[in-house]
Amino acid sequence: MNLSQLYYFSKLAELQHYTQAAQELYITQPTLSGAISSLEQELGIELFQKRGRNVYLTKYGREFYHYVSSALQELDKGIEVAREHAGKMGGTVDIGCIHTIQGDYLAQVIHAFIKEKGHNVTFNIHLAQTNAIINAVEREQWDVGFCSFVERAPEQLFFVPILHQQVVAVVRKDHPLAGEKSLSFAQLEGCSLISYHTEQPVGQEIKTLLDRHKLSALQRFSSEEALCGQVALTDYVAICLRTPALNMFSDLAVLSLSEVPDDFHIVHMIFNRKMYKEHAVESFIDFVTAFWSYTPHASKPWRFD
């Protein structure tokens, strides 16, 4: 038995088709058939059964695949660790990210990671809203997500707080409230308020906050850009997160809310605890957790205005 046989066995078990497996392994089908036959003879058991053009793992084959798969994964990680020591860490990290942190926080994290670990790791960034990110990480489509916290998230998802974003009020500079440094909820009574869709976690958070103060908002918007665009054309007051998107609108005033703590909304990194992770993915998760996570009331919390 040799390592090539185990890789061949693993690939055939995944694809369940000799021709396809041979093509992906860049070997001939007779070579693959011979390797599997030799492996079965050495083990003294049948690993596969034929059904038409496909093959299926036998009971013993399934049991053997469990151990082979785990062993090969650990071996691959060992190879990546060795390459990391040589300054050659490689791999790909697929990240789902809400758009509000892509240009500042995430860009800085990736830059710092590459500076420390090398340039051979590829990052694929997928912009989406929180619910889509949760679903993709749960289904193992993406390795890591950066999004809002969700109360009833699948149990295999682990949340790491990374930064907080302040909730603010945004008005036109000619609005009667624009001259205030900060606002109380009492000052918002009688104002036409707008905020996020309640399908978004942050939208639900803000709705709960406003309900507590007996206020309501038209919650029809999915981003700060959309909210600010409406404010710029109307007398609406937007209740939203302070993000870099607000800097795009020079004719608007951004006012703090005196009764809302700065860390009202926390952004999290999420990952699937049950998902197999390449060494590059594990290293990135560890890097963010160790150096770029957020501890409430820390002396230097990560926050971007």
Describe the structure.
There is one protein chain. The protein has helices at 3-15, 18-25, 29-43, 59-85, 105-117, 130-138, 201-212, 224-233, 279-291; strands spanning 48-51, 54-57, 91-97, 121-127, 144-148, 157-165, 167-172, 182-183, 193-196, 218-221, 237-241, 252-257, 265-272. The strands form three sheets. The protein has a six-stranded mixed beta sheet, with helices on both faces. It has a five-stranded mixed beta sheet with strand order 4-3-5-13-6, with helices on both faces. Residues 298-305 have low confidence and may be disordered. The protein has 305 residues and is of the alpha/beta class. It is elongated. The protein is 39% helix and 23% strand. The longest helix is centred in the N-terminal third of the chain and has 27 residues, at 59-85. α5 links the parallel β3 and β4 (121-127). The protein contains nine helices and 13 strands. The N and C termini lie far apart (59 Å).
Descriptive keywords:
9 helices; alpha/beta; disordered C terminus; elongated; 305 residues
Number of helices: 9
Low-confidence stretches: 298-305
Percent helix: 25-40%
> What does the overall shape look like?
elongated
For the largest beta-sheet, the strand count, sense and barrel status come to: 6 strands, mixed
Mean pLDDT: 88
Q: What's the N-to-C terminus distance?
A: 59 Å
- Topology pattern, helix = H, strand = E: HHHEEHEHEHEEEEEHEHEEEH
Number of strands: 13
Q: What structural category characterises the helix and strand content?
A: alpha/beta
